[in-house]
């Protein structure tokens, strides 16, 4: 089922939670909504589900306008961060709930409901636990039951709200891989919300980066990481360094000298230079480079991160070098970013 | 084990003995000294049986009504924000604080054949004051806060997400309430019922005025005990007291066992 979000607005008593958001999701796609708290990602998910209604705009499921439909009519599978299992029902009854509450005309017979629930339990790799109650399961197991329950109604789309947010790191990694497998096997159009960029980039076909009620960028993990299209995305995804510069005569200037970068089509005037700390060349002599004094060094996993004070006012930038590079505080280092982007200064 | 078990457990036993066990043991000992035949004769006296029957069925009925309305009142207080909510919230506790005799007199004034409400029912030959119906109304009044106050906090803890989950799975509002919310509240509702019932069985002051106290019709067991005491018939008073104690204990124990069972099964407390 393909999904079209068309110029959606949502205000909560004066607060603009979503501002003219449009998004096309292809059938069978696995999409991540990624953003900091308050970026509107959960609001967007709830609007798609029909748990909230937009102030303006429309949502289409395929060719059908779903905007006015109630949550019950939309037939979406929704998985909550805190599982939201029915604790007075055992695992099997939880999974079968969506089938049991159907009107008599479309309700499968009891034996069929049981068969389907057991089948789903097998899909989420919890066979044998059908008699357990939710409080007898671990967090990861509960979330799997919640997913099986959502899949039981054969949803048009599957929506997950921070599905791994309440779990510890190891379980998260396992479930992430497992969710990808389930998605590949069942082929549901799936949208999940997360504030964990690693999760989004690793799991999703396309990532939707959101901030303050708007979509900043939509793209594959490569697009988002390699060609961020705004200072926000540069800052939010991965590590980045920022340096205030100036564009003049098609060159990038740091204070009174050029740093050897061609400004391409950037307009003249003050600008901000963004680059990835690891994506730099260290230079011996400095004819057109950025040079700074080392103020601190830290070991970060396989690399060494160096903090430099650059130029007169001592702007702080970070670069990464191989872990074995011995750099003492106070030494001068010259470098030039390999990949970078200029944004107009605010 | 958490430190301090010895001293707190010792205190609990001491306290319970002083306030509950010793007086109750006195009652047991007193009725035991009657001898079985004498006890049986006093206990099966028709007037005693009628009073016990009246006491227990009016209490059970009132507690049941309170469960229904108490849950609705709790729901309104938990789920909706409206002007005057705090006022209603505070008013729920009034039956706790009001002297029960005052409540009884007020209810009698309203429901008597010439009272505010009673006068409108009179032409239809419906009588409330001086009948068991009047007793039930008085017991509903004093029992309401028990149900509201036990159900309210548990209701506050039900997450909206569980309801939303039910809705996304296709459940309509009625199915959500009936299959998801109410079963989750059941242990709290049972506690509320037990408390309201226990309070109603022992209630005396408010019933006295509205019941009319007609033997075999609207006479409650606690009143019969007082009547026997006033006749210096301590043996009969003791016997009635002992029977009430046993019956009440059996009812409350049963409810407790049901609760313990549901807690074990679903892993949450009432």
Radius of gyration of chain B: 22 Å
Instruction: Give the low-pLDDT segments of chain A.
Output: none
Overall mean pLDDT of chain B: 88
What is the count of β-strands of chain A?
Answer: 20
CATH architecture of the largest domain in chain A: 3-Layer(aba) Sandwich
Q: Order of SSEs of chain A, N→C?
A: EEEHEEHEHHHEHEHEEHHEEEEEEEEEE
Sheet-strand content of chain A, in percent, reads: 35-45%
The total number of structural domains of chain B is 1
- Tertiary shape of chain A: elongated
**What fraction, in percent, of the residue positions of chain B are helical?**
over 70%
Q: Provide the structure class of chain A.
A: alpha+beta
Number of domains of chain A: 2
Distance between the termini of chain B: 24 Å
Secondary structure: helix percent of chain A? 25-40%
The DSSP helix count of chain A reads 9
- Which sequence of SSEs, written as H and E, runs from N to C of chain B? HHHHHHHHHHHHH
Annotated CATH topology of chain B = MetI-like fold
Q: Characterize the main sheet of chain B.
A: none
CATH topology of the largest domain in chain A: Rossmann fold
Q: Looking across the biggest beta sheet of chain A, what order are the strands in?
A: 6-7-8-3-9-10
Explain the overall architecture.
The complex is a heterodimer of chains A (346) and B (270). Chain A is 25% helix and 37% strand. By secondary structure, chain A is of the alpha+beta class. Chain A is elongated. The mean pLDDT of chain A is 90. Chain B is an all-alpha fold and 270 residues long. Chain B has one domain (35-266): Orthogonal Bundle (MetI-like fold), CATH 1.10.3720.10. Chain B has 13 helices and no strands. Chain B is globular, with a radius of gyration of 22 Å. The two termini of chain B are 24 Å apart. The model of chain B has no long low-confidence stretch (mean pLDDT 88). Classes of the chains: A alpha+beta (346), B mainly alpha (270). At the A-B interface, β6 and α5 of A face α9, α10 and α13 of B.
């Amino acid at each position: 089922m393909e999904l079209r979000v068309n110029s959606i607005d949502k205000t909560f008593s004066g607060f603009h939670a979503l501002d003219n958001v449009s998004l096309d999701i292809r059938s069978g796609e696995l999409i991540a909504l990624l953003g900091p708290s308050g970026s509107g990602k959960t609001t967007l998910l709830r609007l798609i589900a029909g748990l909230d209604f937009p102030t303006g705009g429309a949502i289409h499921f395929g060719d059908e306008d779903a905007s006015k439909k109630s949550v019950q009519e939309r037939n979406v599978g929704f998985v909550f961060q805190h599982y939201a299992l029915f604790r007075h029902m055992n695992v099997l009854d939880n999974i079968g709930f969506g089938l049991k509450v159907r009107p008599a005309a479309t309700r499968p017979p009891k034996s069929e409901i049981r068969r389907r629930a057991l089948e789903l339990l097998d899909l989420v790799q919890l066979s044998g636990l059908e008699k357990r109650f939710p409080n007898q399961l671990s967090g990861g197991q509960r979330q799997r039951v919640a997913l099986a329950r959502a899949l039981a109604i054969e949803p048009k789309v599957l929506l997950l709200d921070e599905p791994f947010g309440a779990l510890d790191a190891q379980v998260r990694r396992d479930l992430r891989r497992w969710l990808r497998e389930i998605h590949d096997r069942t082929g549901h159009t799936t949208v999940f919300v997360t504030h964990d960029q690693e999760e989004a980039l690793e799991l999703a076909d396309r990532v939707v980066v959101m901030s303050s009620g708007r979509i900043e960028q939509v793209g594959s993990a490569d697009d988002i990481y390699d060609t961020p299209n705004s200072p926000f995305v540069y800052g939010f995804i991965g590590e980045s360094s920022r340096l205030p510069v100036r564009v003049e005569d098609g060159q990038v200037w740091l204070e009174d000298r050029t740093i050897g970068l061609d400004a391409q089509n950037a307009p003249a005037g003050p600008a901000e230079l963004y680059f990835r700390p690891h994506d730099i060349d260290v230079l011996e002599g400095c004819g057109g480079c950025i040079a700074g004094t080392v103020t601190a060094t830290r070991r970060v996993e396989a690399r060494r991160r160096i903090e430099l004070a650059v130029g007169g006012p001592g702007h702080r930038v970070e670069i990464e070098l191989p872990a074995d590079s011995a750099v003492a505080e106070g030494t001068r280092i010259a470098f030039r970013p390999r990949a970078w982007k200029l944004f107009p200064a605010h | 084990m958490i430190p301090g078990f010895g001293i707190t457990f010792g205190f609990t036993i001491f306290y319970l003995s002083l306030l509950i066990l010793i007086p109750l043991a006195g009652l047991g000992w007193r009725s035991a000294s009657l001898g079985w035949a004498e006890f049986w004769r006093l206990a099966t006296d028709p007037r005693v049986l009628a009073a016990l029957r009246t006491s227990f069925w009016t209490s059970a009925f009132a507690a049941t009504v309170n469960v229904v309305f108490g849950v609705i009142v709790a729901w309104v207080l938990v789920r909706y924000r409206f002007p005057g909510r705090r006022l209603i919230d505070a008013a729920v506790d009034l039956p706790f604080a009001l002297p029960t005799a005052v409540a009884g007199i007020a209810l009698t004034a309203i429901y008597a054949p010439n009272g505010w409400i009673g006068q409108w029912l009179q032409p239809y030959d419906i009588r409330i004051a001086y009948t068991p119906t009047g007793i039930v109304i008085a017991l509903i009044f004093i029992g309401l806060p028990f149900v509201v106050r036990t159900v309210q906090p548990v209701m506050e803890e039900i997450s909206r997400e569980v309801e939303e989950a039910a809705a996304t799975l296709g459940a309509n509002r009625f199915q959500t309430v009936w299959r998801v919310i109410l079963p989750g509240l059941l242990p709290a509702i049972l506690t509320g019922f037990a408390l309201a019932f226990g309070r109603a069985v022992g209630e005396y002051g408010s019933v006295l005025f509205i019941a009319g106290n007609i033997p075999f019709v609207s006479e409650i067991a606690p009143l019969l005990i007082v009547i026997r005491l006033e006749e210096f018939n301590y043996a009969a008073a003791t016997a009635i007291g002992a029977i009430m104690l046993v019956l009440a204990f059996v009812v409350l124990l049963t409810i407790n066992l049901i609760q313990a069972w549901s807690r074990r099964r679903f892993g949450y407390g009432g």
